Amino acid sequence: MSGRTAPLSPDQPIARFGGRLATGLREVASDPAALERGGFWAVAYDFEGRLTCARFDEVRPDPVPPATDRWLGPAPADWRSSLDRGAYTAGVRRIREHIAAGEVYQANLCRVLSAPLPDPARCDIDALTGLLARGNPAPYAGTIRLPEHGVEIATASPELYLRRTGRTVSSGPIKGTGRTEADLLEKDHAENVMIVDLVRNDLGRVCETGSVTVPDLCAVEKHPGLVHLVSTVEGRLRAGAGWPELLAATFPPGSVTGAPKSSALRIIEALETAPRGPYCGAVGWVDADRGEAELAVGIRTFWIDRTTGAPVLRFGTGAGITWGSDPDREWDETELKAARLVAIASGTSTH
Fold first, then answer.
1. I need a labelling partner for 144 at 20 to 30 A (CA). Which of 70, 158, 202, 327 fits?
2. What's this model's pTM, rounded to 2 decimal places?
3. For the domain 14-345, what is the CATH code?
4. Does 151 score more than 50 pLDDT?
5. Among residues 97, 148, 175, 221, which one is catalytic?
């Protein structure tokens, strides 16, 4: 039977994806091989490499969490960015210099927004998930709440990192963002094709020779307040390849790093001043019994950081930089991606 059987306490470990609620935490592991052992797992993979796999005993249909008094977001004026406009646009210009020097074709430059949560008793990340589901529906929305393990994530991600059905794996990289389709430039299409090539190469490392295809290239997807260019890359895992090999070959996701990936990662590390954490990592679920999984790229994602004592809410935003990038336009893209969701989290959205 669908529906909630008992109220959930705000510190109870849960995962919520695709209209399903997972409860009854059994174990937490950091080894991706655990995902081959059976059971239903929630997965949070930080951009910097911290992997948290949480196995739950019970999974049942459950609606989006109702509006409650368990969430009081930051004051709008309290948000701070790890890079201000001047630093971000200077970073864009620096990446263009790297491109001119032939070191990289594209790199994703990101910044992390942070704000203190005003009431420790009203910072239930699952309640924020409910607000996001109503104000910004997303195909890969979900929650992972593991307070004792330092994982409290609410995502409204529109981007597929990895879907697995048996031995078939697919990825849906997003590159190109505008308010409307008319805003998309030739630069956006070129950037998408670059990242598709990167994702094809990544999947090719663990898929059967000749099995990697691109069923969709640069399709336009509409989301609340903006549009994206989205492609699909698909392949069939070779014999002997499982989650450890798949994640090693493809993480971090190509759409939020750049091409070549190794050069882009080096440039990112030099220019960004805050760790990305769950942002631009992976978040989702693995049903090892059914051989199914859906991991999203951790964009449009909030997380609570309690390492400094008082809880702080964080949210990442960024843009892909190419030779054709205009620094001010790229800053504006990061603002567009953040504005609607930050307003929802702060309780100021009119949508």
1. 202
2. 0.94
3. 3.60.120.10
4. yes
5. 175
